Batch of 2 targets.
Target 1
Amino acid sequence: MRPIIIAECCQNHNGDKEILKGMIHAAAENGADYVKIQSIRSSDLTYRERFEEGETAADGTVKTIKRPYQPELERLAKLDLSLEQEAWFVEECWRAGVAPMTTAFTRSVVKDIKDLGYEAIKVASYDCASYPLLEDLKKDFSTIFVSTGATYDDEIAKAAEILRGTNFHLLHCVTIYPTPLEEVHIRRMSFLRKFTHQVGYSDHSKPSTTGLWASKIALALGASCIERHYTVLPADQTRDGVVSITPDMVRELREFADLSRYEQMEIIKRELPEWEQTLGQATRPLSHAEMLNRDYYRGRFASKVDGQPVYNWEE
């Protein structure tokens, strides 16, 4: 089965419809199977006091990251896409000959977007264990991609059980931005295969220094899909630019994905002799950096009910 390539626009469109249109068509022309956006609503951002100043121990160890609410709200507000713009995005993807996908960050957003025509839905790593959200998505989407970064093994097992009966993919992911090659732990895919044969990799490595090697090694070791953040702008013009690939890199990834596994491994062994550093461990404790990110991003957004936040893991 041909591996799936997902071009994740995230918010690299900077809230500009014309930039997003260019991203859609360039991804389609260079071999992406899906173009994905993020259905983020700045109004769903949650205020949590402990992240206003963060906390650092006397020895310099960060205990809580600093991410003040107001600057983040102002940044996100400039990037919001309306429902009308999302409906346009879906149609523009079809016009370009590529399938549309999005990530839903709250249960209230799921209700808004379920009838827009997305072919598939993505669950961010920090919501892999948000079981009520998964139940909602299971009702409205037949194809579901779930990232599993910063998620415990038992949480992944329960998520897979909930999603049984749907066409679901589990994506290995390391929530360090960017992820060094020695931290990508590609062997993790073998653990995820306990739950589904559709196991891919969501890659946050830094293309300017490590190219596409993490994604290529994942493909050679059987990844059914690769998700990469993607941009048509210079890397310094968007927040996620540093971990984003270009249209030319989408093409390179497509061409590599279409080679035989033997050809892929021959290229890897020849051009990256130290490739085995990427294998890592199938099961391991989460690193300090991953735990810090889990602490902040899990609960970053919530549905608002009577003015109060209802998190994705709450009934």
Target 2
Amino acid sequence: MTFIFRPLRRDDFPLLRGWLQHPHVARWWNHETEPGDLERDFGGTADGSEPGEDLLALDDGVPVGLVQRSRLADFPDYLEEFAVLTEVPPNAVTIDYLVGDPGRVGRGLGTAMIRAVVADTWATQPGADTILVAVVAANTASWRALEKAGFRRVAEGRMEPDNPVDDPLHYVYRQDRPGDGGEAAAAAVTGSG
């Protein structure tokens, strides 16, 4: 798999809408999918008026998923939720992700996409020193993909779930930039196959 990431554009919204409506995505993202909802939630990053990035993940040129990436400092409420549970370095970023095509779920695509966005983060975000990710504890596939991609669990506790049917228990995962005090995370990446 060879991934590239490009900013989500408004002409991608119909594709994103379809992905968000698939049961394997809707269960965890719990996102409204009418055109106005997509404009409200993704339009600002599409035109650069809001912080963060919505990135379309392409595998060999084919759109397969979405990655959201942002500096935690740009979202104080979310930063505070993390800070209650674990140390948050000043330049920490966070990611969220989905595999859109249900036919490609469970085949390692999510792990590969996470590894690729981590590498992209270190390459394109020179100030980023840490990636923190919170996952609902019940979303086993998501946190296992993070572990396979070299993240380590550093905390667990209550955070606001995206889907109100979920228990608030979340696991917090961390990966540090290799060579910047993140040797354990780098070793985990090297050791994972």
